[in-house]
Amino acid sequence: MDPLELLGNPVRLRIVHALRGGRELTTGELGERIADVSKATLYRHVELLAEGGILEVAEERRVRGAVERRFRLRAERASITPEQLEQLTTDDHRRAFAIAMAALLAEFTAYVDRPGADPIADLVGYRQHGIWLSEPELHELIEGLRTAILPALTNEATPDRRRYLLSPILFPTEPTAP
Question: How many CA atoms lie within 13 A of 24 on its CB side?
Fold first, then answer.
């Protein structure tokens, strides 16, 4: 299956998010993190991602007569290439955005439904700002965001780190002036 097709599902996107940062998790552990998805659905999506090469088995061991697999993300396969991006149609972009928003909404809902969730203490943010930018200012803003975000993308999961979902969204809301 095409990586675009594999990543084009909110549940599969959430599985990918859960495994970022060098994590190795069993399907049961993924189920604890994505508790609002049924076990059968989660197993099916993990299997699709593994068959598609986005996940790989990091370890197998016998547990009470069954084989338990720990999965890890193959980061190089879990993203869309610039060439693939150029091939997307307007409808493809619309569908991809809807899937990203569905995954984001599901992650946020799971967060606020968790006992003890405290958006104020957790510094949760979801503001929107309308900003006016020239093309050079737009490029400068994007480069500044990359400079700020890229180092954090290489962080591995450790006991003193919490996983956050950061979803920068940027698009023009008005056509280019003639």
Answer: 8
